[in-house]
Amino acid sequence: MKRIFLIFCFAALFSAGLSAQEKQGHSYVIGFYNLENLFDTYNDPAKNDEEFLPEGKNKWTEAKYQKKLQNMAKVIRSMRDDNGAWHALLGVSEIENRLVLEDLVMEPQIAEANYQIIHYDGPDRRGVDVALLYKPEVFTYLDSESIPFTFEGSSIDFIMNQEQKDYFKTRDILMVHGLIDGEHFAIYVAHLPSRAGGKKGGNQLRDRGGEIMYNHAMMMQEKYPGIKIICMGDMNDNPTDPSMAEYLHGKENIEDVTPTDFFCPFTRMLKDGHGSLAYQGVWSIYDLLLVNDALVHAPEGEFRLRPLGKKGYYGRVYRKPFMTNQKGQYKDQPFRTFSGGAFIGGYSDHYPTYIVITK
Q1: Which of its termini does the chain have fewer beta carbons within 10 Å around, N or C?
Q2: Which residues are CB-contacts of 62 (< 8 A; sequence separation ≥ 6)?
Q3: Residue ranges per domain, the chain?
Q4: How far apart are CA 92 and CA 150, in angstroms?
Q5: 26-358: what fold?
Q6: From CA 216, how far away is CA 230, in angstroms rounded?
């Protein structure tokens, strides 16, 4: 009798997990993960990858590369096991090229997900790009675009001179357009400029990144009325910073979202003390997903954003003990790949984040 009872409990829990994420195949996980310098071991003369070579500063050997791939796959698999479903869409950043993603999706821990890759080589001087992994059984790919970071047409009064603007290079913003159950979606994946050099206008560069995404998203809304839009990425800013709150029109509360706004599920989470990364003991959420009005105020029967957990948050920062330092100076912070220039075999200096859509 006890054995039957335990089997029944397990079945009930498993069923509950499925109903939360995959009920009738109409709920999907969509997320973002900064993979913290996923470089291969080969020298690319067109990129500044010398640190990530066997003879380079990081002594980046094949063994370390394989460990890094296994670690990234372990996190993705862990999210699948926790949610009862693979991500339908997973944006990634800090990847060197398509090759590293091909190696990643073939890792035994996640190979069954059959992830497909959308990636463009970008102009970043460090040689890192953004990309999107997607499940073809869920997402029907239509088209994509690598949107360059330019200064033309901006409303921002930059303190940079023209020579500085001409020299500046950063990651393109990836836009992917496709269908989920016949509904149009546009997904933007960004890795906005670093916070280093803020006195030289770094904050304005992130503001410009938000402006570029916003303007392109409004164009897509005009072209495809009712399209669901998700802007995701390592924004190098919190949701309360101008790049997100003003230039991307990110709102904290769903009721304040109009057809020309976005809702940021992570604003309230940040104010409540949550974080996806820590610097000098201060937590931030730079790993953001923002969704447009069509996704938060969707008509009955269409995909919309779903609350997660007992506190009613609409997003989640995914952290587990194995991804977290358990002792030392950085206790309770992300267990990263390198620390003080030394390889420590961790995962990433960022935690992944995600949302769930349902209908």
Answers
A1: N
A2: 41, 54
A3: 26-358
A4: 22
A5: Deoxyribonuclease I; Chain A (3.60.10)
A6: 12
- Quote the distance between the C-alpha of residue 184 and its chain's center: 20
Cβ neighbours of residue 301 closer than 8 Å, sequence gap 6 or more: 359
What's the Cα-to-Cα distance from 129 to each of 45, 92, 98, 111, 309, rounded to whole Å?
16, 9, 9, 22, 32
Taking only the tens of pLDDT, the chain with its 359 residues reads 333 333 334 333 333 333 344 444 589 999 999 999 999 999 988 888 889 999 999 999 999 999 999 999 999 999 999 999 999 999 999 999 999 999 999 999 999 999 999 999 999 988 999 999 999 999 999 999 999 999 999 999 999 999 999 999 999 999 999 999 999 999 999 999 998 755 456 799 999 999 999 999 999 999 999 999 999 999 999 999 999 999 999 999 999 999 999 999 999 999 999 999 999 889 999 999 999 999 999 999 999 999 998 899 999 999 999 999 999 889 999 999 998 778 999 999 999 999 999 99
Indicate the residue type of 313: Y
